[in-house]
Design goal:
This protein has one domain: Rossmann fold (3-Layer(aba) Sandwich). The N and C termini lie far apart (about 40 Å). It has six helices and seven strands; from the N terminus they run ααββαβαβαβαββ.
Length: about 210
Amino acid sequence: MSARAGVHGAVAAIALASLAGCARPGAATTTAPGALAAPVYVVRHAEKAAQPADDPPLSDMGAARAAALAERVRDLRIRGIVVTNRLRTRLTALPAALTQRIDTSAAAGRLVMVPLGTDGVAGHAARVADTVRALARRAGGAVLVVGHSNTVGPIVRALGGPDYGELCDSEYARFFVVTPKGSGVETTRLAYGAADRDDPACGRMMRP
C-alpha cells in the first residue's frame, strides 16, 4: 500500500476522532510560562493539494512526508496528538497516530483538535499550549503538535521557547523539540523527511 493510500484510506476515522476530540543547530534554553510534563514535538502540516481550496487534503508529496513523520517519531513514545480543524493537519498526524498505536477515539482523548478561531494566531497558540500541557500530564508522555506555517513558531513561543517567527510557505521539513529543563524548556530545531526546496523568495522568514 502506498503512503497516499494508507493516509487517505483512513481519513474518515481520524476526521471523526479529531472532530470529537538532519543538522542540529544549538539548542535554546528559556524560562517557560508553565511547566511541561513531557517533551513536545511541533511540526507544520505536510504539503497540501491545490483543491479544494477551502480545506485541501495532502498532495502525494505531503502523504510521503506524513509517512516520514511517522518514521521520525517511531521511537519517541508519543502519547498524545494535537491538530487543528483543517484536514491537512489531521492527515499529517494520522500515520504517526497509527505507528504510535494512539487511540484516536473521543473517549480516549489522546487526539485533540484545537480549532483555528477568531482570537488570532497568538490566541490560537496560547490555546494549543494550554491543551498540550494538560494532555502531556493526562496522557503521561510526549505530545506531537501539527500546526500551520503561521502557527508553528508562535506555538513554540507559547510553550516557552524562543520567538522564531513564521515559516515560509515553502518550508515543511522543520521539526521542533521543546523539552522540559529545570524551570524552563530547551528548544531544538531539527528536520525530517525530504529537504525543503530552495526558495529565493522565501528569505527565511523564520529567525535562526
